[in-house]
Amino acid sequence: MTTDNGRPAIFITGGASGMGLETALLFAERGWFVGVFDVNREGIERAREQIGDDRGHFAYLDVTQADAFEQAIADFGAASGGRLDLMFNNAGIAASGMIDDQPWDEIRRIIDINLMGVIIGVRAATPLLRQTQGSLCLTTSSSSALFGTAGIGIYSATKHAVRGLTEALSIELKRYGVRAADLLPGLIDTPLLTDGIRAMAPAEGAWRLVHPREVAETVWRAYHEDQLHWYIPEELRDFHRAVVDKPEAVRDERAGRKSAI
Q1: pLDDT at position 132, please?
Q2: Catalytic member of 60, 155, 176, 231
Q3: Is residue 256 scored above 80 in pLDDT?
């Protein structure tokens, strides 16, 4: 296991593909020590090949298992020289279905990974974050945290919860000198996106398809700038304002669309 004492360090859940992998690649390119954690063992090995053992730590992690998460943090801390500059709680899943149609085991799995996995990760990472000056606890929320999305209501509920948790953490963690922020991505071009939504995406604007590299660049900015919510793309901020000002109008407009789920 490579041990590093000088480079800043980032721990990424869901790091073997999509936004997580792009973030790992970008931070490694810019001289950071990266931790790639995922349940996809093949993806982990591909990430290891791309990044190299001299620039990172690569391991299996089920974010719903608190003991395993604490051990992963401990192992990462040993490899990073006790540093955790950026904790990126990125792991998440999406499954479509109306709430009265989705099976209970699927509902529980979405909640366990998207919400409980984040809570477990924050608790496990806090000791290392506390001892790293200027550290950031960053979580992937969603544009579905701005207005609940029909057909993926449980997913939306978890992302609303993550946004609220981040706002609370941004105050709670101040007592340790740790910052908190979240990402509010729209339509990111990853396997989580349904074919129907992908086909309906416009060429520009708030609901355009965004490459995962753009998310990675936003993670970089989130560490270096002091901002609570990061909209990806930035045009989503206007949508959020519309939700706050006229939620019924947003509801009616979205209800009038042909569902892409």
Answers
A1: 98
A2: 155
A3: no
